[in-house]
Design a protein that fits this description.
Length: 372
């Protein structure tokens, strides 16, 4: 399996447990999922997400190219701004969801999901136009995510300038963190404030250690994939392969605000999505709360009487709210708040009810570009 530059440092935590995540050997926990989840909600957590893919797009036609490949309107970006967006197949399903960073009028950085990085690069290559050049820098780039309400305070101790004051969905291309050159952005995937720190793979151990030392007085601890999943789930942020796939469109997943059907130039999948919007959605992603005792898990079928009306995409016992919750893709006629459904949990049908999402939302203004 592939390993990040920080893999040797995992062994310093006796409770660490690693798993195979799309061909990567990554930590699901360092101390325990509940402890790490609580740290991010209350103080701060540091994630090694160096498995993510980084693809650079350059050329005079780079912006035109990305307009044609992504659902959001990249022409709205100014240098130093980022946006959440998606790439779709002609039928409207999702190739991947990603972040697009505008570095200059002719230069962009795309941050894609690790499991899709190679396929994304091939997809982009198949649709090249003009003088556009792609470069996959994933192997030589490390990515750390500092997340939590105290993240800005910690960043102020290690950054050479005012990156801690970056507005949401902005980035600094020429930042310095722990004395190392870095790209620092402020997006997040936990429902909390946070920063992403892109550094050369060789600098990752130094920055990782420096951040943990600087954040120790504020309770900063490393966090693994387990807490990352429960945190994003509570905030209703999608995970590719569960809430999104080539069989699930952005509109069905509730991400319509990132689909600009009227933008100049159109994009791959636009016609299918416009038709789906006009005809009305047959399926919708909703929140469920269990009424009967049981925890919904991915792919558990959902019933109304003897009819299958959908399935769970993600479900767990919420670490923050202590409620048994799930996200489910349901037939639209059963997606209304308060609708009672039954989840098949290991052969037993247990009652649940459709509830409002996100399950957790911190008190702050909405953040431009963020899935909600």
């Amino acid at each position: 399996m592939k390993r990040t530059p920080l893999f040797p440092y995992y062994a310093g935590y006796p409770a660490v447990r690693c798993i195979d995540f799309g061909g990567w050997e990554l930590p699901v926990q360092f101390y325990g999922i509940q402890m790490e989840h609580d740290a991010v909600r209350g103080q701060a957590g540091l994630f090694d997400v160096s498995h993510m893919g980084e693809i650079w797009v350059t050329g005079q036609y780079a912006e035109t190219f990305l307009q044609q490949l992504t659902t959001n309107d990249v022409s709205r970006l100014k240098p130093g701004q980022a946006q959440y967006t998606l790439m779709c197949v002609p039928e409207g399903g999702v190739v991947d969801d990603l972040l697009a960073y505008k570095i200059a009028p002719d230069q962009f950085l795309l941050v894609v999901n690790a499991s899709n990085a190679e396929a994304d690069f091939e997809w982009l290559n198949e649709h090249l136009i003009g003088d556009v050049v792609l470069e996959d820098r994933s192997e030589r780039t490390a990515l750390l995510a500092l997340q939590g309400p105290l993240a800005a305070r910690i960043m102020a101790r290690v950054a050479a300038d005012d990156v801690g004051e970056l507005p949401p969905f902005h980035f600094r291309f020429d930042a310095e963190v722990c004395g190392r050159k870095a790209i620092v952005s402020r997006t997040g995937y936990t429902g909390e404030d946070g920063f992403e720190i892109y550094v050369d793979a060789g600098d990752a151990p130094h920055v990782w250690t420096g951040l943990l030392q600087a954040g120790e007085p504020d309770g900063l601890i490393p966090a693994g994939l387990g807490a990352r999943d429960t945190l994003r789930f509570e905030a209703r942020l999608p995970l590719y392969g569960q809430e999104l796939s080539k069989r699930i469109t952005p509109l069905e997943a509730g991400l319509g605000m990132f689909v600009k059907l009227d933008k100049t130039g159109g994009f791959i999948g636009r016609e299918a999505l416009a038709r789906q919007k006009e005809e009305g959605l047959k399926r919708k992603l909703v929140g469920l709360e269990m009424v009967d005792r049981g925890i919904p898990r991915s792919h558990y079928p959902v019933f109304v009487q003897n009819r299958t009306v959908g399935e769970i995409t993600t479900g767990t016992q919420s670490p923050t709210l202590k409620r048994r919750l799930g996200l489910a893709l349901l037939d639209s006629e059963y997606a209304g708040l308060g609708t009672e459904v039954w989840v098949d949990i290991r052969g037993k049908r247990l009652k649940a009810v459709v509830v409002k999402t996100p399950f957790y939302k911190k008190s702050q203004p909405s953040r431009e570009g963020e899935p909600s």
